[in-house]
Amino acid sequence: MLTSGKKRFFAMIIVILLLAMSFTSCGFEEETQKAKEVCTNFLDGVLKDDFLMAYSLFDDIVSGSDFAEFWDYVCDIMENSKSYEIEELGWEFTNYEGVDLFTSSFEVVTDDGKVIQFIVYIDGEGLYGMDAYDSTPFVESTKWVSVVNVVMTVISLVLFVVTIWMIIDVAKRKIRNKVLWILLILFGFWFEAAIGFEAGYFDFNFGISLLFKSAKAYTINSAEAIGARIAIPIGTIIYFFLRKTLSAQDKIADERIIAAREAAEAEARAAAEAEAKAKAEAEQAALEKAAVESEPAEEAPAEEPEEKNNENQ
To answer: 187 and 104, same structural domain?
Structure first.
């Protein structure tokens, strides 16, 4: 049992953890916002063809000649672009040559269909560097993945409908352990894999869930990888193939139970009838015995005196 002191202690621990998470989140948001500002300012300089404005972001960490190579690379990609949209992909901590870096990744999509990946590196003192590479060829070559994703989504919807159908079937069918079968139907297994041959990227995950997880196909442009998630509703499949057998087994079991119950009832009726008959016979015997005992005994005829008999002679 928690005393008031223990409750205060646990409440204090929870508050400290929440504050730590809040401060950490705020710190990450600040670093991410700083990285996004650097990326957008650089892209605005590219669209305006303002080399000096863009270089002012990096002049204290890279030489003008090195920056010019990076500038020319991005300008060639965005040569005909007029606008762009930027999306944050995520962040992580990395270590490069003994330097701890906050790495933030962004995907930029231009109005003319160019897709560029930007990675901004920030250390304890500020901006550390930036990388960019064109993923437009990969995006163009993997448009078929969206078609595959539509097919997998349709299959997932069909399986979802089958799952609902099986739950309704459990509710209507005369079987035992309905709740357990419904939980089993909701039980599923999924695995997910993504492979990028050019970049040597590989990722694999799997798990179980009590809710149906949809299948999908997707691309990871930043890693030039193709991925897919396959969801298998194991519980639905098991019940689908066993439902008639379960009904037949339960029917046989019910028939056996009914037969055993009828046999027991017949035996009980026979025993009751035998007991009633024996009781009736006992009562009849008792009545007859009582009747016999209640009748007066017959008197023996009196013998005439011997003298009287002699006189008659």
So the answer is: no
pLDDT at 61 over 90: no
Half-sphere exposure for 101 (CA within 13 Å, toward CB)? 18
Find which of 180-194, 209-223, 237-251, 292-306 is predicted with most confidence, using mean pLDDT: 180-194
Alpha helices in the chain (DSSP H): 4-48, 51-55, 64-77, 136-141, 144-172, 178-186, 234-294, 306-312
Range of the domain at 47: 18-134
Evaluate whether 191 touches 206 at the Cβ level (below 8 Å).
yes
> Would the pLDDT of 47 be above 90?
yes
Instruction: Quote the CA–CA distance of 32 and 102 in Å, as a whole number.
Output: 9
Full-model pTM: 0.62
Domain assignment present for 45: yes
Residue 304 lies in a domain: no
